[in-house]
Amino acid sequence: MPKMIAYSRYSFVGHWQKITLLLLLMVSVCWFFADTEVIALDPWSELGRMWQGFVHPDFFATEYLLDALWQTISFALLGITIGLLLGFPLALWYQHPLVAAMCAFIRAIHEIFWALIFLQIFGLSAITGILAIALPYAATFARVFADILQQAPMHTLFSLPKGTDKLSAFIYGRWMHMYPQIVDYIRYRFECALRSSAVLGFIGMPTLGFYLESAFRQGHYQQGGALLILFVLLIGSIRFWAKPIMLWLYLPLAVYFLPPIPVIDSQLIWRFISVDVLPPMLQGQPFLSWFDTDKLSQLVNWSYTLISQQVFPGMVATLVLAFCALGLTHVLTLVLLPFNTRLMMPKVVILIMRAVNLILRSLPEYLLAFVFMMLLGPSMLPAIIALALHNSGLMVFLMSRQADSVSVPLTYRPRIDQYSYLVLPAIYPHFMGLLFYRFEVIIRETAILGMLGVMTLGFYVDSNFSEIRFSGALLLLVFTAGLNVVVDYLARRLLHYPRNRLQAC
After folding, report:
1. Which domains does the chain have, with CATH numbers?
2. Which residue, of 37, 66, 225, 359, is most buried by count of CB atoms within 10 Å of its CB?
3. What distance in Å separates the CA atoms of residue 80 and residue 78, rounded to the nearest whole number?
């Protein structure tokens, strides 16, 4: 035991340095294999046209603008409400392995993929958009609420009168302690839901994303600039218009002004579940015949072909793109963070930089990638830049708060050497933990960016849905979810290593 302690104290490279070096090594290897070619003929000219559109936005060019804004809010509000109603009961049972595994699988599939599934059942209706947000958010709420409630202090429970019923003990002994954290997280998820709602417009839902895609594809940058400005203002002003007391008014209005819901054909739902999602050789066949040697042989060949030609190359491309984006996020966050902390910069600079961060974290990765792809062409580079900008903006926003709270000696001066020596080491473990949490998110977002033409898992999922090969699409989604679960597990093991090692000593 003394030898192990001495080794950890005097080792040449510490734990976080090892993780950082390992990350940079993986990023270097992946960047070598990444497709970062600029294919556009004249990106600077196109960028100039976009800039002119942002400088001179046309707020009156978009038809049904107010309807699009309201539908974006409605889908987000109803989706997160249903997610809360489903997620909170699941949080109470989250310790059960089956519940935890089910939630991990559900939240590992992106909202757009859920929308593509529900699109086959409910069509282009409000139900599709609401359920696409509600289902993965319910699984996320279950995990986060379970973690929050687990951290609740237990001393209040012991101070309650003897014979207190379980419901009262839960409310007053645990719930009220963690209520502020739960409310803060719900507010954050509502911001995420607004971004998800906007992105659903790219598959035809009547939200802001639908009009954004149309404007940029047609080169109407004044119209697109106006829409982007409105969306950033919508996100940035959440704390003013999304107060808890106002949500009781917004919720019935959202239900009332929903688009007409078409009649749901139960036969169509049953056909999708019982026939369409099955592999081709099993469709329309009796259940007992599935186990015939011939059928099993065909199933194995079909699975092998799909895995070798779509799953494996899509998974490799997804990991390459995700690692490149993670590495660039790491670098950008460390570069931008000093410009966002009061220990380094005056208030004027901080206000300007935090406005920039607001723009970066407000715009969804899918939307940023779409814009950069129009500038740079269909390669991995636009997706890498989009993912890095969005995630670094969010990380800088969160880490700047922690940096501002670091206690520094009176001899501290706002210089980069003192910042690197005193402030950065204090926040770096939390920074790496947040970075690897964002890695799970980057994997999810990387998959859907394939819908823009990058040959990740999302590219093959979208192709299978477009060609009405639902069985192949669902198998790809299973591997997509499995990849997210594995990455999340490995990241947690990596970050918990120091604590486990200390306990072992």
Report:
1. 13-42+305-505 (1.10.3720.10), 57-264 (1.10.3720.10)
2. 225
3. 6
